[in-house]
Amino acid sequence: MAYRVLIADDSPAMRSFVRRTIELSGFELSACFEAGDGAQALALLRSEWVDAILTDINMPGVDGEELLRRLAADDLLRNIPAIVISTDATENRIARLLALGARGYVTKPFRPETLRAELERTLGVPCD
Amino acid sequence: MEQITVGMADCRVGNVAGQVLATYALGSCIGLSVYDPTAVVGGLLHFMLPDSGIDPARSRDNPFMFADTGIPKLLEQVCGQGASRRRLVAHAAGGASIMDPKAVFDIGKRNYLALRKILWKAGILLAGEAVGGASPRTVRLEIGTGRLWLQEGGGQKELVPSFPQKGGVTWPTGS
Amino acid sequence: MTEPTIREALASAVADVLESMFFLEALGETAEPPPETTTVTARLSFDGDPPGCFHMRIASPAANTIAADFLGEDAGSLTPQQTTDVTLELANMICGAVLSRLESSATFRLGAPHIVEAPPAQLPPEEETRYTVETGNGTLTVSIQMETRTCLATEKFAS
Known about the structure:
heterotrimer; B: about 180 residues; alpha+beta; CATH 3.30.1330.200; 5-stranded mixed beta sheet; 3 helices; about 20% helix; about 35% strand; C: alpha+beta; 6-stranded antiparallel beta sheet; 4 helices; 6 strands
């Protein structure tokens, strides 16, 4: 199965790192969209379907928390699994984001293998 | 069954079912195992130091002593026997602090970081690892099945069962 | 917030970030480089309890090497923008890791990191905490200034 994913992060470097990790994890990608903030992510989701969203929290404008709220409020988008990737490792923040509908949470800094494990848990083990 | 011993600063590749690659006494050294379950080709590298820059002449004589010269050679050799880099399943063992419990000169840790960096640049993620701690380790890779055995602290366990399987198996990480 | 605890947080955060995502071992605390050393400085502000700002100054050769390793590329093939992007993300991650260690009842929020032309003048120790580490390709200095010197739940971290 080929996956379509969306990476939302205001850091181009982090988007590259996440994209590389997904590719090296054995997931075949038919599309990998990138957004610099939540507003760009939502605009993209109006015209493109994705199988998973990987989102930062601290982004300008519509941040990751607001993105999760708007996804949860949308009948079509609420079932897309979202994994949060954030520098904030505090329990309060993690609990709040999981309550908003995030399916997974990876704290920066992280090893690529950690993100792979979270992807496998969220999407299922990649097929060869 | 043909056992092929991989010595220190050494590397061997197997492409015949029935071959077993084995390396012993992995202390601060790292044993890197790569296996292609489709091509039924595997390789085992036992390197000792992270960076050949400290002794370029030595690395020309024996690239397998160093992570930065040994790992590319290992990958080149397994791919030369029909393995695909994209299909390789990689595991690492070793990187312990054997002689230096306080880890002042932590060669084991430096070897481990060098390994991760070089694999990342080569486009390979580890499927599992048994690194760190203070115990020496022994690793055996069965070419016919892809099974990987780890010996540590007097006990032996199968860390990777026979292929085919989906996904990687995470080894317990040494403390 | 006691001085040694912030310093421990800086050291721990730097080591954790460098090892996890940059495959680099922090080679021990060292002296700050002389002013004429070619470096790049990133700055970011944060809201929280207390708010403040964070700086990271890194030797240019180290920045190039770190960027190449992070992106999985050869150092010679990187553009200056790629090196800048990675440098900013490194500062972002270290700052976030520091603040997560100095946990308080409020959630810290990081501002966007940006490059500043010159490193900030060093402040008295009572106003900022600094920490410099050798990376193998040059030094990395981090400093944090908290706007309010209140004692938080530091025992949780220190224990």
